[in-house]
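Design job #97: recover the sequence.
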């Protein structure tokens, strides 16, 4: 799964679908306690039902495992009915995740368009007003 950057959207919606944002916010809220895919899916489903939409548990699992592969989430195994289950835990808080996304997007731009992206970053830095020191 890859992030698609939609410049017509705002905030996390520029790179994530609604169910993904709800999943991550739920995990940030509960923190180290973590949650399994059934708990996350149940929470997301409740939120989506309010908006008249739904999501499959498989879609949630695919997203969560992708976030593990990207290093955004980690997990611990817990035994339960039917075998072992993953309990997903966020590696970053919301701010840390946004920094991760910014690094991913800027890194990709710098790899694909090194000269142009470097020039654009320098121009952006030069146009910023200095922050007053306290």
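Job complete. Output follows.
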């Amino acid at each position: 799964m890859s992030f698609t950057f939609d410049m017509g959207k705002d905030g996390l919606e520029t790179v994530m679908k609604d169910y993904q944002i709800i999943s991550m916010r739920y995990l940030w809220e509960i923190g180290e306690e973590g949650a399994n895919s059934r708990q996350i899916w149940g929470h997301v489903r409740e939120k989506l039902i309010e908006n008249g939409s739904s999501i499959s548990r498989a879609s949630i699992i695919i997203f969560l495992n992708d976030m593990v592969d990207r290093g955004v989430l980690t997990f611990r195994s817990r035994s339960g009915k039917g075998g072992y289950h993953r309990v997903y835990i966020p590696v970053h808080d919301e701010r840390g995740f946004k920094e991760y996304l910014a690094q991913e997007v800027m890194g990709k731009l710098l790899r694909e368009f090194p000269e142009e992206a470097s020039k654009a970053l320098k121009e952006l830095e030069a146009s910023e007003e200095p922050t007053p020191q306290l």
